[in-house]
Amino acid sequence: MASADTTGMYRYAVDPVMAFIQAVVLTASNPVTILFWAGVFSAKAAVLQRTPSSLCGYMAGCAAATASFLSSLSLLAGYAGPYLSPAMSAVLNGIIGVTILGYGLHRGLAAVKQFRQGLV
Asked: CA-to-CA distance for 25 and 19, rounded, in angstroms?
């Protein structure tokens, strides 16, 4: 159910538990997420020469770390959001986007360099 407030922005009545469950399901079903974690776990199993059943503790730790980081980040954003102007929010989004793109470019160039040197 949506209703407009005095600023013209729409506010939605959302059950926090349902929002969390939907976020978990959407994240878990994302193909990129699945490929990422499959790569992490298979690399860990290959390096440590472990069986999939022995990686349960590692998997639980990864899940707990991810959940705690993303929960902390969303709490911080929830508390800081009302104090940020739309312009400041846009600037922060831009900085974060450029940072992520720069990191991806850096890692991509490093991978190409390793590939050309025959390290991969």
From this structure: 10
Identify residue 71 by its one-letter amino acid code.
S
Quote the DSSP letter at residue 82.
Answer: G
Domain ranges of the chain: 2-83, 85-120
Q: 105 pLDDT exceeds 90?
A: yes
What are the tokens at 40? 């992490």
Instruction: Give Cα separations from 89 to 6, 76, 96 (angstroms).
Output: 20, 13, 11
DSSP 29: T
Is the predicted pLDDT of residue 91 greater than 90, yes or no?
yes
Cβ atoms of residues 111 and 120 within 8 Å: yes
Report the DSSP beta bridge partners of residue 102: none
Q: Is the pLDDT of residue 3 over 70?
A: no
Question: 50: Cβ–Cβ under 8 A, 6 or more apart, which residues?
Answer: 44
Reported as a single tens digit per residue, the pLDDT across 31-83 is 887 888 888 878 877 777 777 677 788 888 888 888 888 888 888 888 887 88
